[in-house]
Amino acid sequence: MKIDGTRRQDRAIELVLGYYAAFNRGDREGMLALLADGVIHDLNEGERQIGKEAFAAFMQRMDASYREQLRDIVVFASQDGDRAAAEYVVHGEYLRDDEGLPPAKGQKYVLPGGAFFDIRDDRIARVTNYYNLQDWIGQVSR
Fold first, then answer.
1. Under 8 Å CB-to-CB from 136, ≥6 apart: which residues?
2. How far apart are the first and last CA of the chain?
3. What is the torsion angle, in degrees rounded to the nearest 10, for the CA atoms of residue 4, residue 23, residue 76 and residue 3?
4. Which of 34, 41, 113, 133 has the fewest CB atoms within 10 Å of its CB?
5. What angle do CA 127, 55, 46 make, to 5 degrees?
6. pTM of the model
7. Which domains, and CATH codes, for the chain?
8. What single DSSP character describes residue 128?
9. pLDDT of the chain along its 142 residues, tens only?
């Protein structure tokens, strides 16, 4: 059973790393292909969105206002492969005003972040993102 558990754990890690590789390539279709149809997306300090369509719309809004690359990505997974967590550093540029946030002037930022994942049937069923919004606001307000 340990071998099977190790394979599931490794697969979960590969899935999350693939998700972030697609993100860094700007491959939104590749990201969507790794998500379950009813994916739950918990936004940092925001609402819960459900489904690939909502996720795609969110990414479209993000891509309009931000250019980001994730670096120093580390992924952990439970032995059964049902849950995973990632930590990374966001290197970004604020391109266009985002509602309720400071004005965009091409400000660059570096921000630690993380995410938690539920994995079902080799697809990401939930992603919950976290970063320190006040730190980001401070960086782009200078």
1. 109, 111
2. 54
3. 10
4. 133
5. 65
6. 0.92
7. 2-140 (3.10.450.50)
8. E
9. 445 667 999 999 999 999 999 999 999 999 999 999 999 999 987 889 999 999 999 999 999 999 999 999 999 999 999 999 999 999 999 999 998 899 999 999 999 999 999 999 999 999 999 999 999 999 999 8
